[in-house]
Specification:
Elements: H1 5-31, E1 49-55, E2 68-72, E3 77-82, E4 94-97, H2 100-112, H3 122-126, E5 137-144, E6 147-153, H4 159-171
Antiparallel strand pairs: 1-2, 1-5, 2-3, 3-4, 5-6
């Protein structure tokens, strides 16, 4: 059986159009979700990563208020730095490599407290102006299952963020 070249091209274009429509529908449903669904499973997402920047006083002794940066990479490498080196453009040195159970506990903490949908707090938003806002700001970026969520908050406005930071400080040896 011989297929006419024009008919073959038409079928090929129709198949591609169907695939594009399915991809659009799948993407539209998955990206617009405002729940913690990507983290509800028991398995750690392969791309789970955290980036936490604490903007606080350099002379602060409380690790939850001191200027610091914690980066958990998807390969379970935890990087941490405190003080003057804790700026967004600096890549922190390796603190340690976490075990699968340690990363899974962080995933559960993020899911349990819905941190993938945590909003930026009004006080943290006010801190964008120089000299305004609270003394300590937490800036977080959480990645899981192809989705990334960023928010800013303060120690007073997000106790779940403090729990996450407390665990990162502990795991980094601080």
């Amino acid at each position: 059986m011989r297929i006419h070249r024009g008919a073959f091209r038409h079928r090929q274009q129709a198949a591609l159009a169907c695939l594009a429509a399915l991809a659009f529908l799948a993407d539209a449903g998955g990206c617009s979700s405002r729940t913690a669904a990507p983290l509800n499973g028991t398995k750690t997402p392969p791309d789970f990563a955290l980036n936490v920047l604490v903007r606080g006083p350099l002379d602060e002794t409380n690790r939850l208020r001191q200027t610091s940066r914690y980066v958990l990479e998807s390969n379970r490498t935890l990087r941490a730095t405190r003080g003057r080196g804790a700026i967004p453009l600096t890549y922190p040195p390796i603190a340690r490599r976490l075990g699968p159970a340690q990363v899974e506990s962080l995933v559960r903490l993020v899911a349990r407290h819905h941190l993938m949908v945590e909003p930026t707090s009004p006080s943290a938003e006010a801190a964008a102006a120089p000299g305004a806002g609270p003394e300590v700001i937490y800036e977080l970026q959480i990645t899981s299952n192809g989705q990334t969520h960023r928010y800013r908050t303060t120690p007073d406005e997000s106790p779940p963020t403090i729990r996450l930071l407390t665990e990162l400080v502990r795991l980094a040896g601080g």
